[in-house]
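During the no-cost extension, the postdoctoral fellow (Dr. R.K.) reprocessed legacy sequence entries with the updated structure-token encoder. One reprocessed record is reproduced below for audit purposes.
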Amino acid sequence: MTDANLTHLYFLLDRSGSMQTIKSDTEGGFAAFIEQQRTAAGACRVTLAQFDDSYEVVYADRDLAQVPVLDLQPRGMTALLDSLGRLITESGARLAALPEPARPGTVVVAIMTDGMENASHEWTHPAIKALIEQQEQDYGWEFLYLGADQDAIEVGASIGIAPANSLTYARSNVSDAMAAASVMVDDLRTARRSSPTAKLRGYTSAEREAAGGRKRRA
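Re-encoded structure tokens follow.
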């Protein structure tokens, strides 16, 4: 059995050049996200990866208490698909190498970007979608997608993320988007204590309104 008391949060953060205008807000929103997770019951470890047209793991498998302050340095283009492919495959391999009792009972992958894919060469939308669906179905991973000034529901669906778990946010409302994601993760961690198969509840209408995203098209 995996460790039902342990959550591993994987965060994939866009650091492409367009993030410069919301650099400080993103850093503050991430700090608040981590602080809220520290108050939740159960153990939690964090892996942070960031990407532009290259991919970098900032830190891996850190206890919440040891997560450092985010220092975002925007640059480059947006290789979302290649970066997401690497994060999922490398993280999956690392977890598979652990003894089963040391593996987290809850795995959440959160993706935050303000731009559209424009620089990937190895992974396609259908390939990423198949990979995400496999991780969800075979291993119970949960995925969140946060997209600034775009139809995040449509983009999320193109890579296999449920509409309920995709959030469009305005660039001026980064903190609200981060707060909504943090509450969802917190709720999941709480629900898993009594129901190991609990799923992310999905963003509420109030959370979507606070984030300032466009309404979903009919």
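DSSP finds six helices and six strands in the chain. The radius of gyration is 16 Å. The remaining legacy entries will be reprocessed before the final report is submitted.
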